Sequence to fold (421 residues):
Amino acid sequence: MCFLRFLQQARSTFGRYLSEKAAISSAIGCTEQNQSKGEGKGMHEERKLHIVIGNESCDLDSAVSALTLAFIYAQRQQEHDYVPVLNIPRIDYPLKTEVGHMFNKCEIDAEMLLFRDDLPQHLPSDVNVILVDHHVSNLAANVIEILDHRPLENNPAMQLLPSHCVRHIEPELGSCATLITELYLAKEQPRSCRVEQLLNATIVLDTINFSTAAKRFCVRDLTMVQQLEQLQQVSVDEHLSRRRMLFDELVAARADISRLTLTEVLRKDMKLLQTEHLKVPMAGLPMLVRDYIEQTDAEHAIRQFAGDSSLLVILGMFVPPQSSGQVQRDVAIISLTGQSQLVERVRRALMDCQTPQLDLKPHEVDTNFMGGCFLRQHNVQATRKHILPVVKRVLLDWEATQHCDCDDVYFFKEKPKLGLS
Fold:
């Protein structure tokens, strides 16, 4: 079966197990009742539904990894069904501009895709879940396999994983798509030019086109791209220029926020960090923090996005066009309720961070925007995965000493810039 046909059939495959009524009403009780009566036997006992789902930021790595792994497994293990799901509400799909751009190039229409709000509120226990590009999930009880390139989190949800869950967590990789490519190339079938195109583009973007300054790749990332280029019959003479063109194209697509409002920009690359008492949305901005706050109505957009939240920790990343991956980063800490002590705790923890050192210094031009703290990050190799644990430790300490006075913490990462509406 070809890749596009597989995606087109995903919804009907999903529907065989979870009817539209069940998806809307979350009628898990009926499912359990039917099972107790012995109903629903036959095909469903033999065939199991496997949902392959990425993380809630739904960046290109997460989206492509979900679609391609589901396709690979569906072709190799035809006794079961595999369905990819994008871990965002369908209404947020237009915010994922680089995902939409790449999918359009590969003739993948939004109507072919399944989204988080297509799932029932409570997933039946007989549905298996495969996590890609993350390993902490509220679906943990259903998870049978994890493929991720992020450092292992010490999260209570990890204790809910079944003992038989297979874990492939390799933080040295620059992209989860590298793990998927290794699985794809390990056997001769299936083969799809669109799968190869998607995996290649994702690794090039995630590794910042193998920038030596950013150092976000290892030998395995580069090897997989080289092998994908061979399958796509890219000549040795043109592979460097082709990667550069592809990277610039994807950076521009990811940064194209000209049709988004300032509030939508804040939601564009959102994740959720959870402590015992706090849920922490994490979002990405396509510019440095200092550039964002210069926009008209930036404060209104931040307050609208934050709602009743107390604290915002904003990470900015900007890759100038035609810069060979020369990254710029900055950090902002803003309290919406005047909690200066919490702001200072986060600032001090980031300044004192040694694994790695962030090399934070004040911006050349100071600002008192919303009373926040704004710092330039000179160690551009440090990313959100290094900063997130530092912020989380501060929140846990704050909860213990202040009985969780803050409601939520928002944490932002930025990417390159084109324009704003």
